[in-house]
Design brief:
Blueprint: E1 4-7, H1 14-23, E2 25-28, H2 35-42, E3 46-52, H3 59-63, E4 70-74, H4 83-89, E5 92-94, H5 101-116, H6 119-127, H7 130-133, E6 151-154, H8 158-169, E7 174-177, E8 188-189, H9 193-198, E9 202-205, H10 218-224, E10 229-232, H11 241-249, E11 255-258, H12 269-273, E12 277-279, H13 288-306
Parallel strand pairs: 1-2, 1-3, 3-4, 4-5, 6-7, 6-9, 7-8, 9-10, 10-11, 11-12
Helix pairs in contact: 5-8
The chain binds 2-keto-D-gluconic acid.
2-keto-D-gluconic acid binds near residues 9, 52, 76 and 100.
Pfam families: 2-Hacid_dh, 2-Hacid_dh_C
InterPro entries: D-isomer_2-hydroxyacid_DH, D-isomer_2_OHA_DH_cat_dom, D-isomer_DH_CS1, D-isomer_DH_NAD-bd, NAD(P)-bd_dom_sf
Keywords: NAD, Oxidoreductase
Length: about 325
């Protein structure tokens, strides 16, 4: 009999799904109607879980999977998995570390340029035939230059560093904050997030959300100010979304480029309706290249764990 594995979020690479189906009896949780009944019947026999960084797995579900050997996260965020509990149980939790760095940094830059150059509002203007109706150049407000902007990076991990490399190429002075100064980072360290916001034209959130929550609040947004931009490619809950929606609606910040939200897929109406926001549906790692690499790492983690080994990307064993 093939080992049984449980998929909590889909893998979008058909060849990888074929490979998984050849080796395992794959149960797709997101397609199961009566989830509680399914867990009662099959939970006991599940040996591996595949999940997304944002989806994670609840402690309650982990407790219903006694034969589990590995939680393979198809992503880098570990904030939705109780790592301490898994460590205590000797359960491998793996992440696709390094696989999505470049794509996430690329999208951060894309969102920042789109926000400050009003690319999406301009696209809507042309698409709706408004240009013909209002051909005078003054019909569209002037935008804000990106090159040379002071960029504050929140979280100088892999993604933060990749963002720094990119913005440096645009001649942007860089500051950053993190839990501590990093000796191998040449940029200006600012311990206090509010002070970093005050000294920045754009704040780019690249931090893990394992502990931090709501760190970008009204005070930080006001420090960023009416000419400042916020970009978030990390986790929605790093931001107090109510404060952000109010700041955007009132023009207390110039704009925001957001890939992630507190309660995905629900996005506050104030953020959806504003011309100051550029929005994405949590797509930063969603390229064929990166998702293929990520999925291959997931397959490898499951294979090693089910063969009794320690997956190289394990964070807990
Ligand atoms: C992934 C993410 O898109 O890596 C993460 O933690 O949230 C995302 O980049 C997601 O995990 C895909 O399943």
């Amino acid at each position: 009999m093939k080992p049984r594995i449980l998929q909590l979020s889909p893998i979008l690479i058909p060849a990888i799904n074929d490979r998984l189906a050849e080796r395992y009896e794959v149960h797709k949780y997101f397609e199961i109607a009566d989830k509680a009944a399914w867990l009662r019947d099959y939970g006991i026999s599940i040996e591996a879980v595949i999940t997304g960084g944002h989806t994670g797995i609840s402690r309650d579900m982990l407790e219903q999977l006694p034969a589990l050997k590995v939680v393979a996260i198809n992503g880098v965020g570990t904030d939705a998995v109780d790592l301490a509990y898994c460590r205590g149980r000797g359960l491998a939790v793996t992440a696709t570390l390094g696989a999505l760095t470049e794509d996430v940094a690329d999208l951060a830059i894309g969102l920042l340029i789109a926000a400050c150059r009003n690319i999406c509002a301009g696209d809507r203007f042309v698409r709706a035939g408004q240009w013909e109706l209002h051909p005078q150049p003054s019909a569209i407000p002037l935008a804000r230059r990106f090159s040379g902007m002071r960029v504050g990076i929140v979280g100088m991990g892999r993604v933060g560093r990749a963002v720094a490399t990119r913005v440096a190429a645009f001649g942007c002075p860089i500051g950053y904050t993190d839990l501590r100064r990093m000796d191998d980072v040449p940029h200006r360290f600012v311990a206090d997030l509010r002070e970093l916001a005050c000294d920045s034209d754009a704040l780019v959130l690249c931090a893990a959300a394992d502990k931090a929550e709501g760190i970008v609040d009204a005070a930080v947004l006001d420090a960023l100010g009416p000419r400042g931009y916020l970009v978030n490619v990390a986790r929605g809950r790093l931001v107090n979304e109510k404060d952000l929606a109010e700041a955007v609606a009132a023009g207390r910040i110039a704009g925001a480029g957001l890939d992630v939200f507190v309660d995905e897929p629900r996005v506050p109406i104030a953020l959806r309706e504003s011309d100051r926001t550029t929005l994405q549906a949590h797509r930063a790692s969603a390229t064929w290249e990166t998702r293929t690499t990520m999925a291959e790492m997931v397959v490898e983690s499951v294979a090693v764990a089910l063969a009794g080994g320690r997956p190289p990307m394990s964070l807990t064993t």
